[in-house]
Amino acid sequence: MIDKQVASAAGAVADIRDGASIAVGGFGLSGNPIALIQALLQQGTSQLSVVSNNCGVDDWGLGVLLNARRIRKMTSSYVGENKEFERQFLAGELELELTPQGTLAEKLRAGGAGIAAFFTQTGVGTQVSEGGLPRRYNPDGSIAVASPQKEVRVFAPDGIEREYVLEEAITTDFALVHALIGDRHGNLVFHESARNFNPLAAMAGRVCIAQVERLVEPGEIDPDAVHLPGIYVHRVLEVGSDIEKRIERRTVREGN
Predict the structure, then answer these.
(1) How far apart (Å, rounded) are the C-alpha atoms in residues 236 and 185?
(2) Which residues pair with 106 in a beta bridge?
(3) Are residues 192 and 142 located together in one domain of the fold?
(4) Average pLDDT score over the chain
(5) What Å distances lie between residue 190 and 101, 197, 226, CA to CA?
(6) Whole-prediction pTM value?
(7) In a domain, 133, yes or no
(8) 98/190 same-domain check
(9) What span, in angstroms and rounded, lies between the C-alpha atoms of 17 and 175?
(10) By residue range, what is the domain housing residue 217?
(11) Tally of domains in the chain
(12) Do 39 and 156 belong together in one domain?
């Protein structure tokens, strides 16, 4: 087996070039591979096409790449926590492929599983299937690029005919993910909700780079505890358990 450990975040992302497509794990700010994102920022890579559930916040997560104008296109299901995202999109500076969350998850999983496309009921009868969703605006506010119409077919898996829309799988040049534990062979264990989109993003990337809080030797992880097998992971970077983690909004009761 190959030892997949890399010595630095800079080295891990060194071959991600301008114009690359990247699947990035995380949900909100939970499970964001922030060390790898910051290394990509320092490297200066630009014109990125990023697939992720959301785009972080203005000063954290993928938001740091967005603020630096490094992202050309986002494929996401939720973009409501980032004011700069809104500004760039409405000004025609950013392309957005807005995708239902479950559909986005399955598009990534399908890409990693070698499935070219699938049919789903989600989005039937809306602009998701009928087309016309703005993907990029002109500076004057008119639509420069709109989503295309998608194929819709009728199936009756339970004996009742319903319409389903065809969704194509997603594969990317790279994937950046965060895990709690990894071994040198790339087997990964995620911590609770930080599991979110991370395994799916890892599967979709042709080259997957994982930052882990703790690196262990092969055999130390119980095979039944592995959430993502090392076959999907190409590089592993240990970042330590004291890496900074943030939440989008902290809400507490009065008097607590």
Answers:
(1) 8
(2) none
(3) no
(4) 95
(5) 20, 11, 9
(6) 0.94
(7) yes
(8) yes
(9) 13
(10) 9-116+169-238
(11) 2
(12) no
Identity of the amino acid at 21: S
Question: How far is it, in rounded angstroms, from Cα 53 to Cα 134?
Answer: 18
Say how far apart CA 129 and CA 134 lie, in whole Å.
Answer: 13
SS3 per-residue string spanning the chain = CCCCECCCHHHHCCCCCCCCEEEECCECCECCCHHHHHHHHHHCCCCEEEECCCCCECCECCHHHHHCCCEEEEEECCCCCCHHHHHHHHCCCCEEEECCHHHHHHHHHHHHHCCCEEEECCCCCCHHHHCCCEEEECCCCCEEEECCCCCEEEECCCCCCEEEEEEECCCEEEEEEEEEEEECCCCEECCHHHHCCHHHHHHHEEEEEEEEEEEECCCCCCHHHCCECHHHCCEEEECCCCCCCCCCCCCCCCCC
Residue 1 has pLDDT above 70, yes or no: no
| 4-18: average pLDDT | 97
Quote the tokens at residue 232. Answer: 């999907």
**pLDDT above 90: residue 66:** yes
- pLDDT tens for 212-228 read 999 999 999 999 999 99
